[in-house]
Amino acid sequence: APKPPPVRVTMTRPVINSARCVWLVVSGTDKAAALGLALAGASYETVPAAGAKGRKKTMFFVDEAAAANVPAELIDQDF
Predict the structure, then answer these.
(1) Among 23, 32, 43, 45, whose CB has the most other CB atoms within 10 angstroms?
(2) How far apart are the first and last CA of the chain?
(3) How far is CA 59 from the centre of its chain?
(4) Distance CA 71, CA 68 (A)
């Protein structure tokens, strides 16, 4: 691997999308634009995270910095 950790597991989009539930963790202001585009339905060619879709459920776990520009109605405050 070019950067730590030296051991990694790489999964393709079809493998990820075969999961019943997909969880994505997004943090920091540098990811805010990508999060917004993914939630708005961008193509996975443009925003790779937009291509991750679970068969039953897809959840984004984000910090305040990443969610700064996400409309309130898209945020589940129970989490």
Answers:
(1) 32
(2) 34
(3) 8
(4) 9
Sign of CA dihedral 38, 43, 47, 52: positive
Contact at 8 Å (CB) between 38 and 49? yes
pLDDT in tens, 15-74: 999 999 999 999 999 999 999 899 888 999 999 999 999 999 999 999 999 998 888 777
CA-closest candidate to residue 67, choices 22, 21, 34: 34
Place of tokens 């999308």: 17
Structure tokens at 1: 């691997």
Q: For residues 40 and 20, give the distance between their C-alpha atoms in angstroms, rounded to a whole number.
A: 22
Q: Which helix (H) or strand (E) holds 64?
A: none
| Cβ burial, residue 60 (10 Å; 0-12/13-18/19+) | buried
CB distance 60 to 28 below 8 Å: no
